[in-house]
Amino acid sequence: MSNAKFPNVPDVAPGSLADLIATLQTETGLGTPRPLPPVHLWNPANCGDIGLEIRRDGSWWQNGVRFSREKLVRLFSTILRRDSDGYYLVTPHEKVVVKVEDAPFVGIRADRHESGGHQVIVVTTNVGDVVAVDSEHPIRVVSDRQTGEPSTYVLIRGGLEARMARPPYYELVDWSEPDPADDGAMSLASSGQKFQIGRVA
Description:
The protein has three helices and 15 strands. The chain has a domain at 105-199: Roll (duf1285 protein fold), CATH 2.30.270. Helices cover 15% and strands 41% of the residues.
């Protein structure tokens, strides 16, 4: 039976957040994800630029040619690292520049779950990452200086963020509530914390 409190949540019992995340990972085609490579431990001297870029829509390109193999994109996403001077694909022997137009990932789905008496927002990215919004995976909002249009980001791992696509962003807005501590602000509760996601006019 679906969760009556959060009707869009898959058929997962309240409290089994790990099961929900596993279900979403399976739906992305990952099955049982392998552990991510320890890119934070690798410091190869070789560093080059072979024309790699990730555009705002999350697509990967090399010298103006779009990657057509989704499996390759997902593989490369697991060895992507953000350093103080930019983004790189990192292996034990090589470090390659990746130009990122906005955020390296896109949040393509948002789900609500109930765990430990708290609402939990679960975000799925275009490369199959699934995270629960919490202190380690916070939401931040940046408004365009000219248009005022907000862009919402979720920290996925290692300084790598996902920009929420418009449909799941609207779901986050729908699930948000006025913040009593900040007049005009809307906040979203997840994992026992609140995250501001915008302001009402």
